[in-house]
Amino acid sequence: MRSSMISxxxxxxxxEYARMSRRGFLRxxxxxxxxxxxxxxxxxxxxxxxxxxxxxxxxxxQIFLHGGADGLTLVPPFADQTYPLIRPTIGFAHPDDTxxxxxxxAVNLDGFFGLARAMQALAPAYQNGHLLFLHAAGSTDPxxxxxxxxxxxxxxxxxxxxxxxxWLGRHLATVDPLDPGAPLRAMAISDAIQLTLAGGPxxxxxxxxxxxxxxxxxxxxxxxxxxxxxAYAGRLDPLSVSAIATLQTLDTLGRIDFxxxxxxxxxxxxxxxxxxxxxxxxxxxxxxxxxxxxVAMDYGGWDTHTxxxxxxxxxxxxxxxxxxxxxxxxxADMVLSAQPQRIVLVVMSEFGRRAExxxxxxxxHGHGNAMLVLGHQVIGGRVLAAxxxxxxxxxxxxDVQVTTDYRxxxxxxxxxxxxxxxGLDAVFPAHxxxxxxxxxxx
Amino acid sequence: MDRSAxxxxxxxxERRAGRRQGMRAIGxxxxxxxxxxxxLSSTVEAAPADVGLDVDPRSALLKLVQRVSxxxxxxxxxxxxxxxxxxxxxxxxxxxxxxxAATDALLAPLTTLTMTAPQLYxxxxxxxxxxxxxxxxxxxxxVFIRAVFSKRQLLERMVEFWxxxxxxxxxxxxxxxxxxxxxxxxIRANAMRMFPAxxxxxxxxxxxxxYLNNDRSVAGAINENYAREIMELHAxxxxxxxxxxxxxxxxxxxxxxxxxxxxxxxxxxxPVAGTFFFDETQHDTDPKTFLGxxxxxxxxxxxxxxxxxxxxxxxxxxxxxxxxxxxRFLSDAPPPGAVAAAATVFAQTGGDIRAxxxxxxxxxxxxxxxxxxxxxxxxxxxxxxLLATQIxxxxxxxxxxxxxxxxxxxxxxxxxxxxxxxxxxxxVLPRWNFAADLTSGLFTNVQTDFAALFGSATTAxxxxxxxxxxxxxxxxxxxxxxxxxxxxxxxxSSPDRRAEAIGLALSFPVFQTY
Lengths: 442, 514
Prior knowledge:
- The complex is a heterodimer of chains A (442) and B (514).
- Chain A has helices at residues 14-34, 46-49, 71-74, 83-86, 123-127, 146-155, 167-173, 221-232, 238-254, 274-287, 315-334, 406-416, 424-427; strands spanning 59-65, 107-108, 114-115, 131-138, 186-189, 203-205, 294-299, 343-349, 369-375, 382-384, 404-405.
- By secondary structure, chain A is α/β, with parallel strands linked by helices.
- In chain A, β2 and β3 (114-115) form a beta hairpin.
- Chain B is mainly alpha-helical and 514 residues long.
- Chain B has three domains: 13-52 and 373-512, no CATH class; 101-313, no CATH class; 315-368.
- Chain B is built from 26 helices and six strands.
- Chain B has helices spanning 13-25, 35-43, 60-68, 74-93, 101-107, 117-126, 131-149, 153-165, 174-190, 195-203, 206-211, 225-235, 244-253, 302-313, 315-329, 336-348, 353-360, 363-368, 376-387, 395-403, 429-439, 450-454, 460-472, 478-489, 495-507, 509-512, and strands at residues 257-259, 276-278, 288-290, 293-295, 388-391, 446-448.
- A two-stranded antiparallel ribbon of chain B has the order 1-2.
């Protein structure tokens, strides 16, 4: 949750440098030995040896925006008459309002909703019909506590303190593996697996995919691995399960040269952004076709109680720009590329923020929010919302109402894109999902 | 922007690399950790079954040492044997009675540790490019030094606990200068005293008021952030029986609680920069009702004072703190009876932290307590306590903690690093690599003396037995001990093989828990 991506290339100091060089050397030789003449150098041989049909279903990626991202800034309802009244200093102007500077005007999406300027990098995906926004979406649970709201969202069932698994973990547990021999079915690009993925088989947190090697003397590594295997085998505690999964994953991940990965033309991942690099790792992993079905990552910095800064130079502007350019790069790499990959990307947050801005040019904890879904088979190019309005009597205790249950969005993806319509009872217990036709079948 | 709930999950590599760099830039120091150790390990040479320290591996005494410390050393274990369960616990419950001059000497060069807030602001004004980094470096370094070397181990465990509970990260900007004072005068000073005083000190702490935006909460334009987190995270828990109206009432009661900033153009601020200030002109003087208690109109700072007292005296507070302490010291799912007893003690003693610990750390509770996964910082420190004879620089240690997601003061949301074995069970490879790097000499600033550990042992079984004694007090599970013996038997006389065996021992399941 806290923090994850460390790029070895940036740690330029003595002991550590030596360590990285050694690891880098081991990995490079392994990758070189494994590479097929016809394959890109970063791809492992193992990926071609498996009976694996990548067209069978999508790989799901989730970016969780921690802190409660303000959906009224990400996707401003500029044509709602109340919006300018309750967001006098941090609201976006109508796209045609030439009395305001261009950077403070929304980018028009559908005549009612717009995009924050800093999200403009997503406009092409929207225009191509690959990107769908939802609004007034979220969890129906009333909690405005970050930790409660997020826990409930990740678990997927409100008011069940005894459920310790997450919706995505239960999906993986109830669907046949994409590749039965895959050592790793889901990856958290994080220091720990998110609750969302809890309960999923063959699921690991990996905060630096490029460093999946066991340190120490290479000549004794097989014996040391064998000893570790024996020490952890047959144990049921979570750490032992992770240990065995880690050992099984080392060969596969160790052969992918993440550092040397070349994205598709037009896809530019910023080397200085952890989020960009996480998506780059995810892209390499998916293209390597090692059987990974789900990737989850967290991106924080959205708890904008003060000086929210939606316009150029502001804090939220920077967060939105990093988010949108990272997704745009991933989109170019995975969807627009000559060999498109079957992916579906979901971006969500624990709650939206209060409709009315506070006295500090910020916003407090709220409720209904925007969501984003991207992929080939997403029926995009629109903002899907049963918009409840922003007038006082239309709000839920001062906040945007939730008119679209986030579980309905995820359930439809799971049924139609992830091949698990039969698992929905387990994925979202005690919930009968309503599909909104956000993705195509097949 | 407020980052209180901002998980900086994907922090930029530069920032982290920069922080590590800052660590290294500071001068090295050296310290000897294992005086008692070498002598003890060199005198023990026998078959594995006989090399224990005459402590039942499952005994409550060994578990007590494991849980009040960051890792069982021979010195702590022999102290425990000498003093007995209650005597050893009482010693640690009275940290001031323990001579810790050696640790103080190690900390003496870290001069920012003892600075007041105005001194820290003055230092920053004099050297704005470097001072903040130095402050962060000394804070982080001091956490490692104390955890590894301090004799007041339970105090350090409690400091870690409250550092999580009242989390304030060492972020850029004012927090770099405010958190050191919070850490010393709020967390450390109150870690083993009275909870109400701790909660109150935190509410008076500019670091907390700044981190959770109370310094911007004024009459007529409140900011609920701090009020919400006091209720949810500091005092009552989400199940603590309060409403949004109570959050608003508390936020209003705390309007005007702020601190004095450093204003370069106003010299009169210099002597008081970074200190608490109640601005009565910004205080909401209207009547309030907080948790059913009426607060009359026209008051000032006593609104907040009263609200904090109300919070500390709620049964939900006793239960919440007792539950969290029971989780830390007993089990991820602590027995309800032990929690209830501790909560009763909390309530009867007015929140005496030591009395609550005494109630939890009983032979019966510990005997039944299942193993908990060491958090990465604990894992690293426990290895260093056993094996490091000299540590010249902490950069690699910070880097390792960072790689495992647990560097000191690095958690950004206000709930503190998770206290959950499951949460910390995912990233295993960095633990193994730490163990391999430590034992293969890759950490050039950490000295070890494996020859002393192995003594005159020569056979694989005897060598493995020494590891069992030295690292596990003889409590290593037989199957894992057999794996070590087998690994050593390939080449028992090789120093590299022996070092690898220690690395494996640190990588085995038994070393991941306490």
